[in-house]
Please model this.
Amino acid sequence: MDTKKKSSFSGSIGFVLSAAGSAVGVGNIWRFPYLAAKDGGGLFLIIYLLLVLTFGFTLLTTDVAIGRKTKQNALKAFGVINRKWKFLGYLTFLVPALIMTYYSVIGGWVTKYIVTYLTARGADAARDGYFTAFITSKVSPIFFMLAFLAATAFIVYRGVEKGIEKFSKIIMPGLIFMIVGIALFSLTLKYTDADGVIRTGLQGLGVYIIPNLDGITGKRFLEILLDAMSQLFFSLSVSMGIMITYGSYVKKDVDLNRSLSQIEFFDTGVAFLAGMMIIPAVFVFSGTEGMASGPSLMFVSLPKVFDAMGRAGSLIGLVFFIMVAFAALTSCISIMETLVANCMELFHTSRQKMSLIIGLIFAGAAAVICMGYNLLYFELPLPNGQTAQLLDLMDYISNSFLMPFISLLTCIFVGWVIGPSWIDEEMELNGTVFKRKKMYAFMIRYVTPVMMTVLFLQSAGIFTVIRGLFG
Model:
């Protein structure tokens, strides 16, 4: 049997929408708005945009170019280039394997809320304790997780062009349409609190986009910079093998320069619209105090906002969670595709068989993660000072530890072992001009490794440990 994968995207649009679908995930919706609200509004937006155009472009270009030039998945790509660096492929493979254990769990939570709003029980979702009661129950979270995972596995089962690309071409325009619609609606909101204070969506927009420099010191600026940098990993799907895998499906006649710019635009645009959708709405009904991070924002704060909207809130809530489900599904598909594609070559078997096997394995793993909120509940102190249960632990290892570390090693490998010209050749295929060639070489060799080292030490909690040792 020929184990080499010949699947490919039909063209540039299929690649861009699929890659953008991978990049646009739950992190854009529950993490980006929170960071923007916490880190000076427009100041964070400016810093994030500059990082996307420099660091993000560097990491994204590296992954996609490696994938297309080697025509290999992450597991083998680094070893094909240099056998001594084969280990980096295995490290990269670990990231989607860890993320897959819990991403479908979050997808199941979103699916549950879709059903809640479909059955006209939005007021129940706004009650204190509703979300906690759901995730701590023993059966319901597993049921909804399996439904979400089954949809993911079915699309991956169908393949690259007929499954992933076809789904992305349908879903991504719809996703963007819904985000724009809710964002515009948020700007029309108006609310008078018990003290007679009037808050409007346009005021909330000001909180979001106007730079707030109050209390900005050198240390605080560095914190904002590192927050924006860590968000890049959530947003662009870099350093987890996904973009290497998707790059291996890109045909040689596709202009990578243009495609990568379009992915940057899509991902950054959706992240910005997510903030424009959420921050004004939360500000109107809860003020700046209502902006929480992570699941608390999406499953606790926002249902209260939708309930406060009155009759329109139920419809807006339903559309919102369908939109989130689309974002979660496109990301989960890319994670599972990376695992399936690697294992197809590793075990010399078909896509259909491996999709079923991977689906079953991670159904079991995700069920264990679900039980981390009831039967297997524990609290583990992390090096960064936070406490974690099973889902948080998997997220910490993959996103806070492995991804910055893999990015650092990748920069060293490309910048100093094979050289930036190796990437330049792929970017300039078919006579296209790599317009950001000089910037890329400087970033990959000097700037990005330093920043990845700082981010790794910070996100892995090394700085916290050092401060604890030396008082």
About this structure: The domain at 22-464 is CATH 1.10.4160 (Hydantoin permease). The chain has one domain: 22-464. The chain has 21 helices and four strands. The chain has a mean pLDDT of 88.
